[in-house]
Design brief:
The structure holds two protein chains of two kinds. By secondary structure, chain A is an all-alpha fold. Chain A has a domain at 24-69. Helix content of chain A is 75%, strand content 0%. Chain A is built from four helices and no strands. Chain B is built from 16 helices and two strands. Chain B has a two-stranded antiparallel sheet. In chain B, α10 crosses α11 (216-235). Classes of the chains: A mainly alpha, B mainly alpha.
């Protein structure tokens, strides 16, 4: 069984490897395109689903008073 | 090179013009959603166009403009009220700091995220906003638009750099995000905004000053929170909040490696003087171009200004993949 210190070392090593990783530019371009499409879809879903309940909720000042404003 | 750059700027101008037309059209037909969408499209395209110029000189005017825009909401609290009867105020957007303005088009995503959690609804809007900002501007938002960023840049001018927190502490902002979501779910209350937000001081101070709707207790409490964060920045780095605490920056950082705008580095001209490392307010090494740099870089462009060889430059959709300055490093013929 790995000791606590050993585990900590492994986590630090993994963190350093992730932080130091270099991304392939073609992969970045593809992921960017996918994320952009996903963003538009998610926003469209938000509009279609009528996910704007907070507009009426936030259009009042009451919630802000609750925060001490 | 000059011709290519001017052509590229032309593309940026066309995109900005289209966004402006879309915004005006949305205002004419009175669609708030379209106004928000085109308004931010306009802002994003303007910044991309400015960055295309490759000169961070324009950052300060953009920051000041953004700071002013984020504070416009206070005018409706002045005696006589500015459009006090209108449920939305043109130009006011609280996307980056809370000012409890019911007239604003959009609210702080972190505050809204907690609201969605409390209401047990899936935050489609919030996810969409993070995705769209992430893949277009990334953390350019932190470097160019954030009102606190402007304040922290001022602190950065005078900070002592006495304490150097370890790099792994940058993970703390993600712990902050998870913590605020869990806290909102457990307490059914926007606890983060009430007790921990750096921006609350900027939010409540104008109200206290102009309309006196804020109690002394809250004013002093948030002044203390604000002072604590500023002190940390003063003794360590100007952008300490952005590095270790900002949940908004953390969320944007998740998508920032894929953003359209980035700072690129060319070893061909680099003399390894490390000026860019010394000057970076985020404590990064722009030469490495690794995942940490991509996630943390706020595209402030200070390294680009400092680099005498032209090894560093902005990369945007409208710039060519070449250094923006004529490279003239020592010992290398241009």
């Amino acid at each position: 069984m790995a000791s606590g210190a050993g585990m900590g070392r492994s986590v630090r090593r993994l963190g350093k490897r992730i932080a130091g990783a270099r991304l392939d530019p073609y992969l970045v371009a593809r992921v960017r395109f996918l994320l952009f499409v996903a963003a538009l879809l998610v926003i469209a879903v938000a509009f279609v689903a009528g996910d704007d309940w907070f507009v009426s909720r936030f259009a009042t000042y009451d919630w802000a008073r609750d925060l001490g404003f | 090179m000059a011709m290519a750059r001017s052509r590229n700027i032309g593309v940026g101008v066309i995109i900005v013009a289209l966004a402006v037309l879309g915004f005006l059209g949305a205002m004419i037909i009175g669609s708030t959603g379209l106004m928000v969408f085109t308004g931010y499209g306009m802002l994003i395209s303007i910044i991309i166009m400015v960055l295309t110029l490759g000169n961070p000189f324009f950052r300060l005017p953009v920051q000041v403009l953004s700071f002013g825009t984020h504070r416009l909401g206070i005018f409706r609290k002045l005696p006589g009220g500015w459009h006090a009867e209108i449920p939305r105020t043109s130009g006011v957007s609280c996307a980056l700091n809370c000012q409890a303005c019911e007239l604003a088009w959009v609210g702080c995503p972190i505050g809204m995220l907690q609201r969605f959690v409390i209401e047990a609804r899936f935050p489609f809007y919030i996810l969409g906003v993070f995705l769209i900002f992430g893949v277009t501007l990334g953390r350019t938002v932190c470097g160019w638009l954030c009102p606190f960023g402007l304040l922290l840049d001022c602190v950065n001018k005078v900070c002592t750099h006495k304490y150097e927190p370890p790099n792994w502490l940058r993970v703390f902002k993600y712990v902050y995000i998870i913590g605020l979501i869990v806290l909102a779910a457990i307490t059914a209350f926007v606890a983060y905004c009430r007790y921990f937000c750096f921006g609350a001081m900027l939010g409540i101070f104008p109200y206290w000053l102009t309309w006196n709707t804020v109690g002394w207790v809250w004013l002093i409490y948030h002044l203390g929170v604000f002072a604590a964060y500023i002190s940390l920045s003063y003794f360590s780095h100007g952008r300490a909040w952005c590095r270790y605490f900002c949940p908004l920056g953390g969320m944007l950082g998740l998508f920032a490696p894929f953003s359209l705008i980035r700072v690129k580095h060319d070893w061909k001209w680099c003399t390894d003087c490390k000026e860019c490392v010394r000057i970076c307010p985020m404590g990064l090494d722009p030469r490495k171009q690794n995942l940490m740099f991509r996630m943390e870089c706020i595209n402030c462009g200070r390294c680009i200004t400092m680099c005498k060889t032209g090894s560093l430059a902005y990369s945007t959709p409208f710039t060519l993949d070449a250094p923006s300055k004529t490279p003239t490093p020592e010992g290398v013929e241009a």
